[in-house]
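Box 3.1 A note on notation
Throughout this textbook, protein chains are presented in two layers. The first layer is the amino acid sequence; the second is a C-alpha cell string describing backbone geometry. Keep the layers aligned when reading.
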Amino acid sequence: MPALDVDFRSALRRTRRLLDDAGASLLNRRVLALCSGGVDSVVLVDLLARLPRGAAPKSIRVLCLDHGVRAGVEAELAAARAVAAAHDFDITVERGALDTSTHGTQAAARTWRYATAARVAAVHGCDVVVTGHTASDQLEGALLGLVAVTGSGAPAAMPVARELAPGVQLVRPLLALDRSTILELAAAAGRSWAEDPSNADADAYLRNGVRHRVVPALLDLAPGAGPALARAAQRASTQQLALDSLAAALLDSWGARTAPQRLDVRLAAPLATPARHALLASWLRGAGLGRAVDARAIRAVDELVMRSGDARIDLAGHACVRRDGYDVTLCSTADTGAPRP
C-alpha cells in the first residue's frame, strides 16, 4: 500500500465513514473504478489504492471511457493510464458511438457509460462500480433539483450506493469530499490529470452554469451553504430510498408488478401523498417506462387514482394508464377502448 500522508489519512477516514454509514464497504470486493482522467476520478483511484487492510478491496480494475463525441481525448486517456500504472492496476478502455436520436448528448452519454460499466464489470467478475462524484457534484445536483421544471422542489441527491445491474452495485466513495479537497489530494500525490474542455464552458450545459456562476456566488454570500445543501440533499435521498423500498415491498405483496400491471386504487389511495407518489413511480418504472416517469407523470397518475370515474391518461413513449372502476392498468396508446379525461 502506498505511504499515507496527513491529507490522505483524513480523506480516507471520511470516505470510510461515508461508506460504512451507507452499508457500502468495499472490503474484499472486486472493484471497477471509472476514471475519465480528470482530477476527481484520478484521486478516486489514488484513494482506493490507499485503503487500509481492513477496508481494502480484493481487486481493483480501472475503466476509462471515450464516449466518441469529441476529438482530443488522448490526454485524458493518458492520465487514466498513468494513475492505473502507478498502482499496478489493470485498465480497460472502451470507445463508444452515442445514439442521441431520442435524448440529448449528456443523457445519452450517461446511459452508455453506466451500461458499459455494468457490462465490463460482468466480464471481469466485478461486483461494484465506483465513480468519482464529489460533494461539489452533490451540491450542484441539489441546486439543479431545486429549479428543475418537472422536479419536486426538494433538493435532489445522488445516493452513496445503489444497484447498477443484478449483482453489481454502484458506489460513490468521494461524496464526503469537496472539489477543493480533491485538488489538495491530487497535489499531495503529485498527480497530473486532464479535464474535458467542455466542463470549463459555463454556457455549454445548465450544470456548467450552476458550477461556474451560481455556486461561487452562493458560497461567497453564505460560505456554509454548500455543506448544508449537500447534507439536506443526502437526507432527502435517504428518505426517498426508504420510501422506494417500502413501495417495492407493497407492490410485491399486492402482486401489482406482474402482468397486466394492475393496481387496486383501494390499496393505494389511503397512503400519504409522498408514499403514494413513491409507490406509483416504482410501479411505472417497474413496467419499463424509465425516463417517462417524471414528477408531472406521477402527479397525473395520482390524480387518476384519487378521483372517481373511469378515464385514461397518455404518457410519453406510447404508454398510457387507464382506470376502470377500482383498477388502474398500464396500457398502450393504441388501445382506444377506454374513456379519456
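The chain has two domains: 6-230, 255-332. The first strand starts at residue 30 and ends at 34.
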